[in-house]
Amino acid sequence: MHSQLIQNLRVQDLMVSSLLALVVAWLGILMLNNHKPVTHPGTAAADEAAVLQATADLWQHHPWLQPPLENLVRLWMAGRHEVFDNEPDAAQPADPRPLYDQIAEHYPMGAARARQFADWIESAAEAYQVPPELLAAVVAVESSFRVDVRSSVGAVGPAQLRPEYWSELGYNLYEPGENIRAGARVLSSYYHLCDSDWDCALRAYNVGITRVMNGGGSAAGERYVSRISSAPFVAERGGW
After folding, report:
1. pLDDT of 61-110, one tens digit each?
2. Residues 25-41 pLDDT 10s
3. Which Gene3D superfamilies does this UniProt record tie to the protein (predicted)?
4. Mean pLDDT, rounded, for 151-165
5. Is the dihedral of CA 30, 34, 35, 37 positive or negative?
C-alpha cells in the first residue's frame, strides 16, 4: 500500500510538472504574438527559437519542470501553428463591397432602390440561413431585379415563384420583399433536402426537387448553377 501511495504521488508530480511547463511555454508564445508587426520574414522563426532556448535553459536549471517527451512534441507543434498562423505578412482578402453597391453597378436602378433590394435580400438570407450573395444571384438570374416580371409559366416577382405552388407559404408573392423572402425559404428547404448541398438546392430551384431526386433535369440544372456562379455577387465574393 505504501509503494502504491508513492507511485501515485510520483504520477501527480509528473502531471503538475507537465502543466507548469505547458504554462511557461504558452506564455512565451503569447509574448510572441504581441510583438507586432513582424518586419522581417525570419523574425517569427528566430523568436520561436529564442522561446524554445529559454524554455530549455529553464528546464536545465529546474529539471522538475520538464514534462514527458510526447508532451514536448505536442507543445512544439501547437506553438508552430500558433506563431505562423498569426504572421501579419500573409495576404488578407479584401472585404467585399456592400451588396447594394454591386446591385446598383450591374442593374439599372437608383441607389435608393438598390439599397431596398439589398435590405430585402440580406434580411431574408439571415432569416433562412442562405448566403446573401447566393440569394442575390438567384434574384439576378431569375428576374434581373424586376419586381413586376411574370414568366410564361406564371412565376412572379424577383425570385420567380409560382403562386399555385408556393402561396401556401403565407407570403404575398406579388410584394417584392415577401417574394424574395419566400424564395430564400424555398432555397433553404431544398438545401436541407439535398443534404446541405447548395448546388443541388439550386438545381432543385430551377427544375424542381422531384426531378433532381429522381436524377432528371441534370443538364438544365447544371447550366443554372453555372449562371448563378457567374453572377457578379458570387464571383466578386469568391463563391458562397
Report:
1. 555 555 554 444 344 344 433 333 444 444 444 556 889 999 998 998 99
2. 545 544 444 444 444 44
3. 1.10.530.10
4. 94
5. positive
- Sign of the CA dihedral 173, 176, 182, 183? positive
C-alpha cell belonging to residue 186: 424555398
Determine whether 135 is exposed, middle or buried from the number of CB atoms within 10 Å of its CB (0-12, 13-18, 19+).
Answer: buried
- CATH top-level class for 99-236? mainly alpha
Q: What residue ranges do the domains of the chain occupy?
A: 2-85, 99-236
Cα Dmax for the chain: 90
Cα distance between residue 103 and residue 97, in whole Å: 10
3-state secondary structure 67-125: CCHHHHHHHHHHHHHHHHHCCCCCCCCCCCCCHHHHHHHHCCCCHHHHHHHHHHHHHHH
**Residue pair 163/173 in contact by the 8 Å Cβ criterion:** yes
d(CA 225, CA 106): 19
Q: In the block, which residue shows the cell 501527480?
A: 12
